[in-house]
């Protein structure tokens, strides 16, 4: 790829980011580690891992970095409740509950009763530990009822999914800047980047790369099946808003986003063969712990692309490890079943 012209210098981008209020939660910078045994085993490119699973708070992950920006308004403006609702093993629910505990707010988790809600383990166990009021629901309307009850009781409710939405992407512009400085310090010019993301990590990394004029292929792997073209267009919409908030003279279209839903399996949260293999390979070559729902899917995609010859020796890829490891414990049986010999 040809060099692009930076829209701003790193210093200017830092100053623009500093205009947003931010909590101090994460242990930053997160490490950027080499995976020599994995690269050797694959006979392919150099692989570095950006350890966003090591952001520190409450078992870490990308949500800690995102919440530094996106939950700041809730603390500043005196909200009473941090609310989140998704799958029972949601990492975002875990960090929402942890944040509420840390700032003395009430946490309400309205999770789905699903295949990983019993026995209580992984992220769901941690939700309870952090003192969240946990509702496991069967129908989406029940979530609305919980929110209405809280509001009727005079509580100001901050939904960590929808409130501060764009700020979550902005946090990963900052994440890109941090990683870029680490790469430059080591004299490494990466050719590609892999990340599992629904929206924010992917958008932030792409906007960060474009803002600094860094030419690299960013491959986003969705944790859910999707129409890739529609998704790319919608990511571009978020990126345009983020560029505007950061006063960057940039515009994005769907062509700027490479996002795949095909690695998710049949639905969000199912363990696929490729994800299982990825979790085991990372563990057995680098003692690197992935999760079955997010990072296992993205790592599996990266392995597939390397094996197909999309990347070769002499190139460098960065895998952005977004965390999610506590969910692993709720998938123990599936990780070892149906045929443990496959796991060797
Ligand atoms: C481990 C992990 N990786 C990736 C994601 C995707 O995050 P985002 O869509 O904010 O980039 C999430 C949360 O949804 C997550 O918990």
Count of helical stretches: 13
Helix-strand pattern: HEHEHHEHEHEHEHEHEHEHHEH
Average of pLDDT: 95
Count of all domains: 2
Radius of gyration: 20 Å
**Which residues form runs of ≥5 with pLDDT under 50?**
none
Number of strands: 10
Q: Helical content, roughly?
A: 40-55%
Distance between the termini: 39 Å
Largest sheet: 6 strands, mixed
Proportion in β-strands: 5-15%
Widest β-sheet, arrangement of strands: 1-2-10-7-8-9
The CATH topology of the largest domain is what?
Rossmann fold
Using the coordinates above, name the CATH class of the largest domain. Answer: Alpha Beta
| Small molecules held by this entry | pyridoxal-5'-phosphate
Shape: globular
Report the structural category.
alpha/beta
What's the architecture of the largest domain, going by CATH? 3-Layer(aba) Sandwich
Overview in brief:
The protein has 344 residues and is α/β, with parallel strands linked by helices.
Tell me what you see in this structure.
The chain is built from 13 helices and ten strands. It has helices spanning 10-17, 36-42, 62-70, 72-76, 91-103, 122-129, 141-152, 165-185, 200-211, 228-245, 273-286, 295-307, 332-336; strands spanning 32-34, 46-51, 81-84, 106-112, 133-137, 157-159, 192-196, 217-221, 258-260, 316-321. The two termini are 39 Å apart. Helix 9 packs across helix 10 (228-245). Helix 9 (200-211) links the parallel strand 7 and strand 8 (217-221). The chain folds into two domains: 10-61 and 165-343, 3-Layer(aba) Sandwich (Rossmann fold), CATH 3.40.50.1100; 72-159, 3-Layer(aba) Sandwich (Rossmann fold). The mean pLDDT is 95. By secondary structure, the protein is an alpha/beta fold. The longest helix has 21 residues, at 165-185. The chain binds pyridoxal-5'-phosphate (PLP).
């Amino acid at each position: 790829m040809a060099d692009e012209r930076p829209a701003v210098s790193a210093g200017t981008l830092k100053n623009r980011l500093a205009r947003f209020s931010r909590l101090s939660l994460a242990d930053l910078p997160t490490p950027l580690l080499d995976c020599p045994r994995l690269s050797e085993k694959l006979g392919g490119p150099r692989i570095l891992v950006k350890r966003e699973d090591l952001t520190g708070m409450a078992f870490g992950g990308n949500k800690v970095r995102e919440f530094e920006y996106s939950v700041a308004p809730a603390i500043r403006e005196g909200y009473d409740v941090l609310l989140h609702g998704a799958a029972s093993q949601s990492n975002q629910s875990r960090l929402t509950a942890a944040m509420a505990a840390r700032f003395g707010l009430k946490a309400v988790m309205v999770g789905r009763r699903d295949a990983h809600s019993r026995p209580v383990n992984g992220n769901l166990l941690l939700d309870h530990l952090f003192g969240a009021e946990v509702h496991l629901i069967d129908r989406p309307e029940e979530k609305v009822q919980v929110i209405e009850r809280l509001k009727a009781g005079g509580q100001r409710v901050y939904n960590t999914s929808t409130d501060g939405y764009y700020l979550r992407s902005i946090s990963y512009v900052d994440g890109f800047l941090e990683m870029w400085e680490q790469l430059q310090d080591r004299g490494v010019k990466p050719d590609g980047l892999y990340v599992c993301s629904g929206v924010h990590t992917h958008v932030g990394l792409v906007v960060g790369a474009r803002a600094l004029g860094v030419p690299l292929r960013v491959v986003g792997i969705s944790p859910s099946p999707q129409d890739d073209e529609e998704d790319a267009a919608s990511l571009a919409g978020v990126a345009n808003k983020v560029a505007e908030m950061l006063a960057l003279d940039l515009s994005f279209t769907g062509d700027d986003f490479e996002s795949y839903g095909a690695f998710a399996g049949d639905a969000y949260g199912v363990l696929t063969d490729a994800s299982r293999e990825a979790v085991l390979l990372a563990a057995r070559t680098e003692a690197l712990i992935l999760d079955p729902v997010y990072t296992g899917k993205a790592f599996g995609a990266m392995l597939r692309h390397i094996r197909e010859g999309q990347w070769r020796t002499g190139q460098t890829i960065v895998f952005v490890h977004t965390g999610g490891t506590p969910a692993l414990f709720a998938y123990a049986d599936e990780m070892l079943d149906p045929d443990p010999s496959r796991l060797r």
